[in-house]
Every structure is written in C-alpha cells, then in structure tokens.
Amino acid sequence: MDSALTRKYCIMTTAAANILRLSFDKLGLSARAYDKVLRVARTIADLDGSDVIDTKHIAEAVQYRSLDRKFWKE
Questions:
Q1: What range defines the domain where residue 46 resides?
Q2: Confidence (pTM)
Q3: How does DSSP assign the chain, residue by residue?
Q4: CATH number at residue 49
Q5: What is the pLDDT of residue 69?
Q6: CA angle in degrees (0–180, nearest 5) for 55-48-9
Q7: Count of structural domains, the chain
Q8: CA dihedral defined by 59, 64, 70, 71, rounded to 10 degrees?
C-alpha cells in the first residue's frame, strides 16, 4: 500500500490523529515510519472490527514500533 492508498483507507478519529502526532513528535519518527504505524493501526482496527482507527489502535501500533526500535536499533 503506497502513501496515497494509506491516506485513503486509513481513516482515523481526531483524537487518534492527535495521539499519533504527539507520539511521532516525542519519538522522532520519520514520514516512512508514520505510514508503517498507520498501516499497522489499520490492521489492528480491522481485527477489532472497526471501520475507523481509534486511539487504542494507534496506541497499540506505536507500542509495536517502539519495541521494534528498542530491539533492532544498534
């Protein structure tokens, strides 16, 4: 899924967008990481049966990204 499709299909609540923005500001993640986290959040929302990405989906996706950085960063 490219960036255009990510923006088209990864619809999130305003609160979720704020959480995502704050997370990226705090963690200093890139635009590429933004798309990856958003796609993971979309998958989590799908598994939860939700049409819209909510704060809990973003929080879980950011946690996975934080774990990834913790264990793979040299």
A1: 3-72
A2: 0.83
A3: --HHHHHHH--B-HHHHHHHHHHHHHHT--HHHHHHHHHHHHHHHHHTT-SSB-HHHHHHHHHHHHHHHHHH--
A4: 1.10.8.60
A5: 59
A6: 70
A7: 1
A8: 170
Residues 6+ apart with CB under 8 A from 31: none
Residue type, 52: V
Query: What are phi and psi for residue 61, nearest 5 degrees?
Result: -65, -40
Check whether 74 has a pLDDT greater than 70: no
Confidence (pLDDT) at 30:
84
Q: Which structure tokens are listed for 9?
A: 């299909």
> First vs last Cα of the chain: how many Å apart?
28
> What is the rounded (10 degree) CA torsion for 48, 6, 72, 21?
-80
Q: What is the mean pLDDT of residues 25-45?
A: 91
